[in-house]
Design brief:
624 residues; 6 helices; mainly beta; disordered N terminus; 5-stranded antiparallel beta sheet; 31% strand
Length: 624
């Protein structure tokens, strides 16, 4: 359902509590629908609460992963900063659904309130945005763009026409800021004079790139952190469609000018499946990578682990029809053993595709990079780069860089034998052509960067370990390349590795320069893990490289020698154009800066580190 400056109803909306608790629905509004399987409408005399204590439920079902935090699981303090609606949805339709199996409505409300101190808001009319655009002109497809995860099909993350010179970067200032619910939000997409963003709170916004006013908003039941794409579509009233993949494995198509939903299709049915990597759009086809949160089920004794295999689904951009589906393994998960609670275990499993696929139109190939194995059963396509036929999905070659990387975040369902180091590929392969030769270049959490031959998949060069690597270290969300140099961010933790930014020769992997993350800086991230490490994807422009750190600092480095040209602490509170006073930012992670039309856009507050909202910051030279 869509907002165009007036009240609209959200079917299964993840609402910001302050927007709807302040007042009842406006007179004359349609009645609230009975939410199935949406929020439970509490009795009028209960003040939105059920008389069930949530603490025992949390202790029995959640504490083993969150108190203290295990692996990637957020701590209880970090969960407490999230909106109650997001926590509730995680328990009912999200990654934590297996842990909440069998809980009653009252128990779900109780544990949500115990974690956040608040009850989730029932379905209700959504408040209008406070800063609607006064005019809604036509789209500008000939204007500046950052479209999709890497800006181009090669996933270079390089903007050749940023709209400013490297010499102007020290003068970048915040032009406007926009705060909205969601703790893991999508990378901003720039299309002409508009910027599009989505969030884990189930909202898609079309904003004016110069002012931040709202052209339209769409609310749906789900969330998204995968980047979006825009492409031509005759069926769209404007001639252009916006495509989104969400955490329930739905792919949506909207009219890019109005936000009208054109179609949606579910591309997977795994109980904890999701779309994390951004779908790639090429020649009327969306190539959708699938992942799952099974790694987080390691301490859930009742969960039959593990059954997910990384998969790519090709979807027609015209109507949502599924054209082909290809799992990275031919073998199906089979019963293997039982865990200590007597629950049946399965394998092989794993190889999630966490990043956006890369299109090689000339070779007719799609390149994907995969994550680790979840079980002790052999998985020959985990921790690998694969080439698939664009038209059929047939796997042409596999280069597995690390075998037997069997990893889970817990022990009850963990793999037998030696546990792997969790050296997933979380970054997209980049297609680089230089000197008449093309290479597929990417890095993983081992902190090693690889270059492969696109015809055979054989490794052409690989670096030594650039840092310590680790489950939350090494190369996380990906480098950028200008075609000659590859700029690699390292997420190693200080004292255990060498966080920073490294420049490599694309031809042979030689280290050209390195800028280590500074030590001893104060961290102003309100909550969550705080580190000067660089986990976020890198962005390059002529003469400069942008990289964001977990401590919230965004820096621009000289592409020539790594000298810091500019720095901004995104945790600095700022008044937003949609009426939020002193809104804080937080950690920078996953989707990096997007640059187009003289503007730099970035989300701050990843993972709830700024509370229940994320801050979108827009920079321009001198703030003009």
């Amino acid at each position: 359902m869509r907002l165009t400056g007036v009240l609209a109803f959200a079917a299964g909306l993840l609402l910001a509590a302050s927007a709807v608790l302040a007042q009842p629905p406006a007179g004359g509004a349609p009645p609230r629908p009975t939410p199935k399987p949406g929020y439970i409408v509490p009795p009028e005399n209960s003040a939105g609460l059920y008389p069930v204590a949530g603490e025992p439920i949390f202790k029995a079902r959640c504490a083993q992963c969150h108190e203290p935090a295990v692996g990637r699981a957020p701590s209880r303090d970090l969960l407490a900063a999230r909106a109650p609606e997001e926590v509730y949805d995680a328990l009912t339709i999200g990654a934590m659904k297996p842990m909440a199996a069998g809980l009653t409505d009252a128990q779900l409300y109780g544990v949500t309130r115990f974690i956040t101190g608040k009850s989730p808001v029932p379905n209700a009319p959504a408040a209008a945005d406070l800063n609607p655009c006064k005019t809604n002109g036509p789209l500008q497809p000939a204007g500046p763009q950052w479209n999709g995860w890497g800006r181009d099909l090669a996933n270079s993350r390089y903007q050749p026409k940023p709209g400013f010179a490297a010499a102007d970067i020290p003068r970048l200032k915040v032009k406007w800021a926009f705060a909205y619910p969601g703790t893991k939000n999508s990378e901003p997409l720039v299309f002409g004079d508009r910027v599009f963003v989505a969030s884990m709170s189930g909202k898609v916004y079309s904003l004016d790139a110069k002012t931040g006013c709202v052209h339209w908003r769409y609310d749906w039941r789900g969330g998204a952190r995968a980047s979006m794409s825009i492409g031509p579509l005759k069926a769209a009233p404007s001639g252009w469609a916006l495509y989104l993949g969400d955490d329930r494995m739905f792919v949506h198509a909207f009219d890019a000018a109005s936000g009208k939903e054109l179609w949606k299709v579910v591309v997977g049915d795994h109980k904890v499946g999701r779309i994390t990597g951004s779908p790639a759009l090429y020649n009327g086809v969306l190539y959708v990578p699938l992942s799952a949160s099974e790694e987080s089920q390691g301490n859930v004794a009742a969960y039959s682990c593990c059954t997910f295999i990384g998969t790519v689904v090709a979807v027609s951009a015209n109507d949502g029809k599924i054209l082909w589906r290809r799992a990275i393994l031919d073998a199906e998960p089979r019963p293997t053993r039982k865990n200590s609670a007597g629950t049946q275990m399965y394998g092989p499993a794993g190889g999630s595709i966490w990043s956006a696929p890369t299109v090689d139109a000339k070779a007719g190939q799609l390149y994907v990079a995969t994550g680790d194995s979840y079980t002790e059963v052999d998985h020959p396509t985990s921790d690998a780069v694969l080439a698939m036929d664009l038209n059929t999905g047939k796997i042409r070659w596999v280069n597995q860089v690390l075998a037997k990387d069997n990893f889970m975040s817990g022990t009850v369902n963990g793999p037998l034998g030696e546990r792997g180091p969790d050296f997933d590929f979380g970054s997209s392969p980049a297609l680089v052509t230089l000197g008449g030769r093309t290479l597929v270049i990417t890095g993983n959490k081992s902190s090693i960067v690889y270059a492969m031959d696109p015809a055979s998949g054989k490794t052409v060069w690989q670096t030594p370990k650039l840092g310590s690597g680790g489950a939350l270290g090494g190369v996380e969300w990906g480098p950028a390349t200008d075609g000659k140099t590859v700029y690699v961010a390292l997420a190693d933790f200080p004292g255990r590795g060498r966080p920073g930014l490294v420049a490599l020769s694309a031809a042979d992997g030689r280290e050209l320069w390195r800028d280590d993350a500074p030590k001893g800086l104060a961290c102003n991230v309100p909550s969550g893990r705080c580190s000067p490490s660089f986990s976020q994807a890198v962005t390059a422009v002529p003469g400069a490289v942008f990289a964001g750190a977990l401590d919230g600092r965004l820096r621009a480095f000289s592409a020539a020698d790594g000298k810091v040209l500019w720095e901004y602490d995104t945790t600095t509170p700022v008044d937003t154009v949609n009426g939020v006073k002193a809104a804080p930012g937080g950690s920078l992670d996953m989707g990096g800066a997007t640059v187009a039309g003289g503007m730099v856009f970035i989300h701050s507050g990843y993972g709830g580190s700024a509370g229940p909202s994320n801050l979108l910051l827009a920079f321009s030279v001198d703030g003009k």
